Amino acid sequence: MERKVAIVSHVQTKHSSDIGMPRERMLFNLVKELHNKVGITRHDVDSYVLCSNDFEAGRTISTVFEDTPVGAYMKDETKVEMDGIMALIYATMRILSGQFDTALVVANSLGGSQFRPFLIMEYQLDPTFDRQVGLINELNAGAFQARSYMDKYGLDEWFLDAISARLLRNGAINPYALRSKDDATPEYVASSEYYYEPLRKLHCYPFSDGACAVLLACGEKAKELCEKPVWIKGFSNSLETCRLGERELYTSPSTKQAAEKAYKAAGISDPANEIDVAEISAKFAHQEPIICESLGLFPEGSAEDVAKNDLAEITGKMPISPSGGGICTYVFSAAGLINVAQCCQQLTGEAGDAQVPNAKIALAHGQDGFCAQHNSVVILSSEEG
């Protein structure tokens, strides 16, 4: 990337099962907070990239009533339908084009109060067969994926319980998290009800309302707007087939491919030793090791060893999702962008009790589709380089 791009500022809502206000008011409050934080107005933003989904919003052109409250009225504005991290990648490319110096990315969803994500996800199934048969939904597909990983490596459910317990404890020190428990144990998670074996309620993401906004700028402008820009060093995304029967679910080739390209752009050759912290978009407990292993952060099939040796803890060798990740909050359309914001907090030393010491390089991940069909990776750094 010849032109440099950095994250200037970010804000997110306190996520909940019911935000208690209209979507438009939530977005207005969010962006107003960012404006005040940076000391700008809407006229200082060259381009707007919004992320929401027609099926989730219950209307076509879901951003039609979002433009005005975020300040995009009569401005350059475009939309991404998938995950917010993909909107961030699009905004980065717009700045890299040289046509814009600043871009505001805003992603939101009301998956706690206005729709049921498990039902909406059925529209991402293959429409000519899988959806018509009516046997597959997001929950049992997640259970197939978990069982595939467990059978491949000979694991039992304990590692799922341990992952969720760690994330729930992390969520307790994240002021934005929806679900948390400061003394969560594997036994506590194992006491929750089954949805589809081996998945229990606390192995699965909670339905969440919320939003996130991230302001990007070219290198020169970023230095004018803030003292600690977070630099975007590399990014990529990759997509697999939507037909579950054509995929090996115990691994994630699209995550691996996206990571390889992002690492190459960022100059990373040994991710397990060069990356200091990662925020992973895992909607179910078993997806964390599948994604992390595909990212090269842990060896294949090592989920139980990682849990037993506390390697993914905030104080571990490779801290994974200090925010609590998708087990604590999963805001559709905004989850990956929230991961970017959490990484920025780590790199600027503003993560509070969740702070990873001396964090300089962070990885933010986002996903979309059944069983993490579409994956995106962004590498961030506290140093311009």
Question: What does this 3D model show about the protein?
Answer:
The chain is α/β, with parallel strands linked by helices. The protein has a domain of 130 residues: Thiolase/Chalcone synthase (Peroxisomal Thiolase, Chain A, domain 1, 3-Layer(aba) Sandwich), CATH 3.40.47. Helix content is 35%, strand content 18%. It has 16 helices and 11 strands. Strands 3-2-4-7-1-8-11-10-9 form a 9-stranded mixed beta sheet. A hairpin with a 5-residue loop joins β10 and β11. α4 crosses α16. The radius of gyration is 19 Å and the shape is globular.
Give the topology.
Layout: E1 5-12, H1 23-38, E2 47-51, H2 54-57, H3 67-70, E3 76-80, H4 84-96, E4 102-110, H5 117-120, H6 130-133, H7 138-153, H8 158-171, H9 186-190, E5 194-196, E6 199-200, E7 209-218, H10 219-225, E8 230-239, H11 253-266, H12 271-274, E9 277-279, H13 287-294, H14 303-308, H15 325-328, H16 335-347, E10 361-368, E11 374-381
Parallel strand pairs: 2-3, 2-4, 9-10
Antiparallel strand pairs: 1-7, 1-8, 4-7, 5-6, 8-11, 10-11
Helix pairs in contact: 4-16
Name of the CATH first level of the domain at 5-115 and 207-225? Alpha Beta
| SSE sequence, one letter per element | EHEHHEHEHHHHHEEEHEHHEHHHHEE
How many DSSP-defined strands? 11
Strand content: 15-25%
| CATH architecture verdict of the domain at 5-115 and 207-225 | 3-Layer(aba) Sandwich
Helix count, per DSSP?
16
Shape assignment = globular
Per CATH, the superfamily of the domain at 5-115 and 207-225 is Thiolase/Chalcone synthase
* Overall residue-averaged pLDDT value: 96
